[in-house]
Amino acid sequence: MAGGPAASPDNDNHKKEDMSSMEPDESDTAQPAALRGRDRQRVKGGATLSDELKDTLEDLIVSGVLKPGTRLDEAELSERFKVSRTPVREALKALAATGLVDLRSRQGGVCVARISLPMLIEMFQMMAVMEGLCAKFAARRATEAQKARMSALHDELTSILASGDHSRFYDVNQDFHDALYEASNTHYLAEQTRALRKRVRVYRRYVTFQPGRMTATIGEHGAILDAIRRNDPKAAFNAAIDHVSLLEDDIVDLIAALSEQDAGAS
């Protein structure tokens, strides 16, 4: 299955429509203090202005505010964030290095990267193995404090599910997985797992919000925790893989969600 709808003609009107999805929203797209009218290369803490802009755009992309395929016009971004084009250009290059931005899209110009469905499925399969390894190491190495942290987040998720606050569930679910990576007491593995999870985060949201998925998550997290508490690396590995893997039903649901998104955008 091909990933993403065909590109439309690259004209001024279309460009304006693409960037309209980037209009500021007070709740989602507030500019950090470092970007408010300050066009200098160094900001507080030694970070560069381009670093600050990169972090802001990254947050907008992984949270789904800027959707896959959205055009990222250098001049529009410069005007929006009140900076020169140099930090904008550097920020976009840095995001391209992480795979979040496509510098030479089929539409022409720079846009939020799309992922083809075959590659997306492959990335989720790799995600499952990497989280499985994190769980395996956590079963061997997790401290009592790290186990307690995971348990507290699991209990919080259970309470949130009962309250019906789905958006909060998604956020705390992210915290649970971060706690799992931390409990693995690894460096490179945890870092790479976080990077891949960030790369597929906007797509993962679609799976999380499919009917019954959150209820299933509670049981799957419980299996991971139980194996870690028993110091059973093999069981922890298998439980984590079962939790993350896109099995047949999950794949069908993901395809349906992505197709609905593309239909709505056309």
Level of helix content? 55-70%
Low-confidence stretches: 1-46
Q: What general outline do the C-alpha atoms trace? A: globular
Q: How many separate domains?
A: 2
**Terminal CA distance:** 18 Å
- Kindly report the CATH topology of the largest domain: Four Helix Bundle (Hemerythrin (Met), subunit A)
Give me the side-by-side strand order of the main sheet: 1-2
Number of strands: 2
Largest sheet: 2 strands, antiparallel
Which homologous superfamily in CATH is the superfamily of the largest domain? GntR ligand-binding domain-like
Number of helices: 11
Tell me the Rg in angstroms.
Answer: 20 Å
N-to-C series of helices and strands: HHHHEEHHHHHHH
Task: Please explain how this structure is put together.
This protein has helices spanning 12-20, 49-62, 74-81, 85-98, 117-141, 144-163, 166-183, 188-208, 213-229, 233-244, 248-265, and strands spanning 101-102, 111-112. It has 266 residues and is mainly α. Strand 1 and strand 2 form a beta hairpin. Helix 5 packs across helix 8, helix 5 (117-141) runs antiparallel to helix 10 and helix 6 (144-163) runs antiparallel to helix 9 (213-229). The protein starts with 11 loop residues before the first helix and ends with a helix.
